Amino acid sequence: MEIEVLFPTLVGISQADPATVHAINAEVLQQRALIESLLSHSWGDNVLSSFNKEKNLFAHAHLHSLKKFIEDNILEFVSKTRKDQAFTFDHQYTQSWINITKKFGFQERHNHERNVEGLPISGAYYFSTNQHDGDLAIFPTDMHYKLFGNYVIEPAVGKLVLFRSDVFHRVSANLTDNDRVSFSFNYLLTK
To answer: Side by side, which strands form the sheet with 136-138?
Structure first.
């Protein structure tokens, strides 16, 4: 895992190996009918998502390989960014969903789970992308966005991006004719 420092924000980026990508793809394709039945327009006409219909897609659709890959990387992200290595915590997904972003689809600047007890981490896994269908921009925390630029991440199949849930981010418009498919999630670590 690569840890990017967008002072004062940390961003974890990991690339799944070909065997993991293959395992994830196989599970998603096996559950395609179920996943498609959960899709609705969540963020405008050009983004379909399971966000409003199923709060824990990974468990509901039995996406075990995807769930494990993300969880392993979250735990590595936390351990690599902590000074004290002797800590233990409970951890769980609080939400997981799929986004299918069609031409002209985008997501405005937003953040996730605020004011929760513990450390919430959010992120995205790119399932299908042509790498030109909308970048992810991470904004520095607090008021630092006035001093520093955004950290822009280009999508790639098998790429996982992690960040604290309260960090603002946005996805630029998909200006291509191909759909971008990503899985997003919120994950909570508590003592």
So the answer is: 107-110, 169-171, 136-138, 151-153
How far is it, in rounded angstroms, from Cα 140 to Cα 146? 9
Residues 73-96: tens digit of each pLDDT = 998 888 887 776 666 778 888 899
Predicted structure pTM score: 0.91
DSSP letters spanning 86-106:
----EEEEEEEEEEEE-TT--
Tens-place pLDDT, residues 22-49: 999 999 999 999 999 999 998 777 999 9
Is the pLDDT at 146 greater than 80? The verdict is: no
Spatial distance between the Cα atoms of 113 and 12, rounded to a whole number of angstroms: 18
Per DSSP, helices labelled H in 85-135 are: none
CA distance 8 to 28: 35
**Cα(first)–Cα(last) distance of the chain, in Å?**
24
Please answer whether residues 10 and 66 qualify as being in contact, where contact means their C-beta atoms are separated by less than 8 angstroms: no
C-alpha of 116 from chain center: 19
